[in-house]
């Protein structure tokens, strides 16, 4: 068997392993990425908190209006009961009534504007709740996809490891050492194929005598320029 070709095959397996590691990192990142759904949740929580506060304000306002209405009823009762005849006292009650009416109108105006705000905020909460649900669905789908990818990568890695081990078993120790050293030095590409009588990695024109030796493949031949192991 041509040693060069075995090394080329080994390199392909190693490159595929590298590619798998990259894909695994991506899939793991994708699996852990919850930025979109976290943002949607925070958005919803903000709107909900705002709505709660507005509703609380409205309840307080309604309580205040209630007690004001009671006071007004008392003043009116005294004012129109006929029991009070003192002019000064009557004038005072009249002033009280006017003041209370004015205050009540103010409270009612505030309640109206609060109710409008509550309506708008409530609509915003509904929109944000739907957005959060969408985002959750999307994130779950993304996670599922990432998980599937990881399972596929597990299977692929196991197969690659097996193929790699059986291939390495067919190569002698010095050849493997040379390959491993070059692989580390040349960013995973220890082996270069000959294309148009040149090294495909650096373009060096390989002399004809070497070309035939490379074809036979009983020994390792290195590119005189880039130092990689040459293969047909
Ligand atoms: Zn070269």
- Structure summary, number of beta strands: 3
Q: Which structural class matches the secondary elements?
A: mainly alpha
Distance between the termini: 13 Å
Question: What is the helix/strand order?
Answer: HHHHEEHE
The average pLDDT value, as a whole number, equals: 96
CATH architecture of the largest domain: Orthogonal Bundle
* Shape by Cα distribution: rod-shaped
- The overall number of domains is 2
Low-confidence segments = none
Major β-sheet profile: 3 strands, mixed
Total helix count?
Answer: 5
CATH topology assignment of the largest domain: Helix Hairpins
**Helix fraction by DSSP (H/I, runs of at least 4):** over 70%
CATH class label of the largest domain: Mainly Alpha
Q: Could you tell me which ligands this complex binds, including any ions or cofactors?
A: zinc ion
Give the neighbour order of strands across the main sheet.
Answer: 2-1-3
Beta-strand percent range: under 5%
Mind telling me the C-alpha Rg? 41 Å
């Amino acid at each position: 068997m041509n040693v060069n070709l075995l090394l080329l095959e080994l390199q392909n397996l190693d490159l595929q392993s590298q590619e798998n590691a990259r894909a695994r990192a991506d899939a793991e990142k994708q699996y852990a990425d919850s930025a979109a759904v976290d943002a949607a949740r925070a958005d919803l929580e903000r709107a909900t908190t705002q709505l709660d506060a507005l509703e609380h304000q409205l309840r307080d306002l309604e309580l205040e209006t209630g007690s004001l209405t009671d006071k007004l009823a008392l003043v009116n009762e005294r004012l129109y009961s006929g029991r009070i005849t003192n002019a000064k006292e009557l004038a005072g009650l009249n002033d009280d009534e006017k003041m209370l009416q004015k205050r009540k109108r103010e409270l009612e105006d505030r309640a109206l504007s609060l109710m409008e705000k509550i309506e708008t905020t409530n609509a915003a909460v509904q929109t944000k709740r739907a957005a959060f649900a969408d985002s959750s669905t999307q994130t779950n789908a993304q996670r599922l996809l990432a998980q599937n990818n990881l399972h596929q990568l597990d299977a692929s890695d196991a197969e690659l490891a097996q193929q790699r081990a059986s291939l390495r078993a067919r190569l002698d120790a010095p050849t493997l050492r040379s390959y491993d050293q070059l692989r580390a030095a040349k960013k995973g590409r220890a082996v270069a194929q000959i294309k148009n009588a040149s090294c495909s990695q650096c373009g060096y024109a390989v002399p004809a005598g070497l070309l035939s030796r490379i074809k036979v493949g009983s020994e390792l031949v290195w590119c005189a320029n880039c130092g990689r192991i040459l293969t047909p």
